[in-house]
Recover the amino acids of this structure.
C-alpha cells in the first residue's frame, strides 16, 4: 500500500500566484481531509469530503481557498491568489467510512512558501 | 466547541527514562481521544485511541495512555524511552460527526527530545 500521496512536497511561489496542491488518498478510502499546520495555529482542519462530496468547509480561511474532489482517487486544494500568510505545511489524510472511520492516515505534507 | 491543551511545548528526557506527556481536553461529553506522532518531515501516525471501556489503552511502539474523566485528561506514557522516540506528539479529540467521519481537533503538540 502506497499510503496517502501528496504533491508537490515543496512549493515556493510568489505572492499573487495560484498554487495547487494535490492528494491521492489510500485506495478504497472514502473520506478525505485537508489540514494546515503552522507554528502559530498548529494543525487545523480546512475541509473534508465523504464519498467525494464536501461535508464541512468551515475551516477554509477565506474565498481564496478552494478544494475539489472530482473522483475517489484525487483531490486538490487551490489557493488563488496566494499570500505570504498562507505559508504552512498542508496535509492530506484519508480514512475508510466502512472499515475504520476513526483512523486517519496522513500524507507526508506539502511545505508551501509564499514570498 | 471542543479544545485540546498540551501544556508542555518541549520536553527533554534521557534514553531509558520514563515519559509522560500531558493532554487536557474540553468537551461537553466524553469525546473520542487520540494520540498521534509526527517525525521530522513526515505526516502524522496514529499511536493509540480511546472510545470507551478500559480507561488504559495500549498503542504501538510501547506507548499507553490513560483516560481520566474527572480530570479531563488523556496523558501519554512510556516506561522507557528510546532515541527513536524523538518526535512531536499531538493529542486530538473528535466528536462523531454523524456523517461517518471523525473531525479531529488537535493540540499544539509537544516536542520530545531524547538525550543519548
Amino acid at each position: 500500500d502506497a499510503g496517502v500521496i501528496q504533491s508537490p512536497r515543496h512549493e515556493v511561489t510568489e505572492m499573487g500566484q495560484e498554487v495547487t496542491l494535490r492528494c491521492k488518498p489510500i485506495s478504497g478510502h472514502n473520506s478525505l481531509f485537508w489540514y494546515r499546520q503552522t507554528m502559530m495555529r498548529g494543525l487545523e482542519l480546512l475541509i473534508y469530503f465523504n464519498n467525494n462530496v464536501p461535508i464541512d468547509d468551515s475551516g477554509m480561511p477565506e474565498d481564496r481557498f478552494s478544494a475539489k474532489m472530482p473522483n475517489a482517487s484525487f483531490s486538490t486544494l487551490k489557493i488563488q491568489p496566494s499570500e505570504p500568510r498562507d505559508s504552512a505545511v498542508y496535509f492530506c489524510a484519508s480514512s475508510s467510512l466502512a472499515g475504520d472511520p476513526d483512523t486517519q492516515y496522513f500524507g507526508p505534507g506539502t511545505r508551501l512558501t509564499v514570498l | 466547541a471542543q479544545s485540546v491543551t498540551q501544556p508542555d511545548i518541549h520536553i527533554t528526557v534521557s534514553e531509558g527514562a520514563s515519559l509522560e506527556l500531558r493532554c487536557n481536553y474540553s468537551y461537553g461529553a466524553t469525546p473520542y481521544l487520540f494520540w498521534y506522532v509526527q517525525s521530522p518531515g513526515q505526516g502524522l501516525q496514529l499511536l493509540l485511541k480511546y472510545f470507551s471501556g478500559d480507561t488504559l489503552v495500549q498503542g504501538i511502539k510501547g506507548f499507553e495512555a490513560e483516560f481520566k474523566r474527572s480530570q479531563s485528561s488523556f496523558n501519554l506514557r512510556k516506561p522507557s524511552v528510546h532515541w527513536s522516540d524523538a518526535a512531536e506528539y499531538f493529542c486530538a479529540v473528535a466528536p462523531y460527526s454523524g456523517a461517518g467521519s471523525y473531525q479531529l481537533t488537535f493540540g499544539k503538540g509537544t516536542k520530545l527530545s531524547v538525550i543519548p
About this structure: Chain B touches chain A through 25 residues (CB under 8 Å).
